[in-house]
């Protein structure tokens, strides 16, 4: 393991091939703390980071957090019960930094009082999901800005012109919200250094460092996934849900709501199942689609009782396994706690089989799995059994590779 910086968690040493390529030599790593400057603000900054972004080495949220002493960095998916976010949401001077219709231009924000600025960090799809799955964020006014120039984040592809990194966005708004705003250009010193260093690795080292690598050292996606799953063992927990979902077309369309929540812990064979009574009128076809009688749904428990039971079932270090993210996001929106780490199995299966994957109960044959013997009701029970079966099948695909050599999300 390479030594890493205690602050930024970036490697202090990098190993690169020698001129002949037969040996490796040490060079300076990618810690840029020496270029960071502490920049106090009266603005209270809340950085909410998607879990998949936490260990991205070229992310910028932590870099900004280390330079802004009046900032807080929180990793997760559900923030509606976070005490600091709840407190901020009750203040009239709180904004979410996110573009869109109705966003208030930063130049129009009154500066007579300090504001709370909530910043969601992740890819654009991840950031949108964080907003959608947290009603507390959706209700807050949004803050927008027009970038003065194109992003310098040249080592990461932005989805459209005008998109910038988290740290660049903070520079753009803080230079307006704070006194002596030009000083926040210094936030970008470690950012520019990181980009330049990564470009050097890509152009000077990146191509040839893998040249001549023996085939026996290559890890297939399936073997890498198996090794990744084996790291967690008893911590894995499969989850699935069902919703009362209205069609998109009718004018009286309502937001989907969770009505069936299920989980299975393979290591102990424990299962969790709760039917939740609908809080809204049942959508046409809901009972048919989820294969639960209307009487069963009507007699379900409350959402609060499901939350309490779920909290008792969860363990602090659980790692959730899921097939798609819709029901995870819906459950988080309904206030169910979600573990920090997850494995989205459908994404890995798409990489393994090089095709788009549909519902798991239709893909079990391709995966080569059989449903686990779970005595759970409805379509949700069948799909959770299919997920548990696929997990066991993909986890058994082992070879001699060391799991510590695989490069996958935590």
Explain what this protein looks like in three dimensions.
The protein is α/β, with parallel strands linked by helices and 410 residues long. Helix content is 32%, strand content 17%. It contains 14 helices and 13 strands. It has helices spanning 61-67, 83-89, 124-132, 135-138, 166-177, 188-206, 221-230, 286-290, 294-298, 303-313, 326-333, 345-353, 360-367, 378-395; strands spanning 13-17, 24-28, 44-49, 71-75, 94-97, 104-105, 116-121, 142-144, 236-244, 257-265, 270-275, 319-322, 341-344. Strands 4-3-7-5-8-6 form a 6-stranded parallel β-sheet. A 5-stranded mixed β-sheet has the order 11-10-9-12-13, sandwiched between helices. Strand 10 and strand 11 form a beta hairpin. Helix 13 (360-367) packs parallel to helix 14. The longest helix is centred in the middle third of the chain and has 19 residues, at 188-206. It is globular and about 65 Å long. The chain starts with 12 loop residues before the first strand and ends in a 15-residue tail after the last helix.
């Amino acid at each position: 393991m390479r030594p890493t910086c205690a602050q930024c968690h970036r490697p202090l040493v990098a190993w690169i091939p020698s001129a002949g390529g037969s040996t490796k030599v040490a060079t300076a790593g990618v810690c840029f703390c020496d270029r960071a400057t502490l920049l106090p603000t009266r603005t209270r900054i809340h950085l909410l980071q998607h879990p998949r972004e936490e260990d991205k080495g070229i992310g910028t949220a932590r870099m900004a957090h280390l330079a802004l002493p009046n900032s807080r960095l929180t990793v997760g998916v559900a923030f509606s019960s976070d005490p600091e976010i709840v407190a901020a949401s009750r203040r009239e001077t709180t904004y979410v930094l996110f573009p869109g219709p109705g966003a208030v231009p930063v130049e129009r924000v009154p500066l007579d009082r300090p504001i709370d600025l909530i910043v969601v960090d992740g890819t654009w799809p991840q950031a949108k999901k964080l907003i959608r799955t947290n009603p507390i964020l959706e209700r807050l006014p949004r803050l927008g800005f027009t970038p003065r120039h194109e992003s310098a984040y040249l080592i990461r592809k932005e989805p459209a012109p005008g998109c910038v990194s988290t740290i660049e966005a903070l520079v753009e708004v803080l230079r307006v919200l704070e006194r002596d705003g030009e000083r926040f250009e210094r936030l970008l010193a470690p950012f520019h250094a990181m980009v330049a260093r990564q470009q050097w690795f890509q152009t000077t080292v990146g191509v040839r460092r893998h040249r001549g690598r023996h085939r026996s050292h290559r890890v297939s996606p399936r073997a890498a996934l198996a090794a990744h799953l084996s790291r967690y063992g008893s911590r894995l927990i499969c989850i699935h849900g069902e919703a009362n979902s209205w069609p998109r077309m009718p004018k009286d369309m309502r937001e989907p709501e969770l009505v069936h929540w299920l989980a299975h812990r393979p290591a102990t064979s424990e299962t969790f199942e709760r039917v939740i009574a609908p809080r809204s009128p049942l959508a046409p076809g809901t009972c048919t689609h989820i294969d639960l009688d209307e009487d069963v749904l009507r007699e379900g428990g409350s959402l609060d009782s499901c939350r309490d039971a779920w909290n008792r079932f969860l363990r602090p270090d659980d790692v959730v396994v899921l097939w798609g993210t819709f029901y995870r996001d819906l459950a988080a929106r309904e206030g169910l706690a979600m573990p920090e780490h997850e494995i989205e199995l459908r994404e890995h299966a798409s990489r393994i089989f090089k095709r788009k994957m549909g519902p798991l109960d239709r893909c079990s044959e391709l995966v080569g799995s059989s449903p686990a013997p779970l005595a759970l009701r409805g379509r949700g029970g069948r799909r959770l059994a299919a997920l548990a079966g696929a997990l066991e099948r993909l986890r058994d695909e082992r070879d001699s590779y060391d799991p510590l050599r695989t490069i996958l999300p935590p």
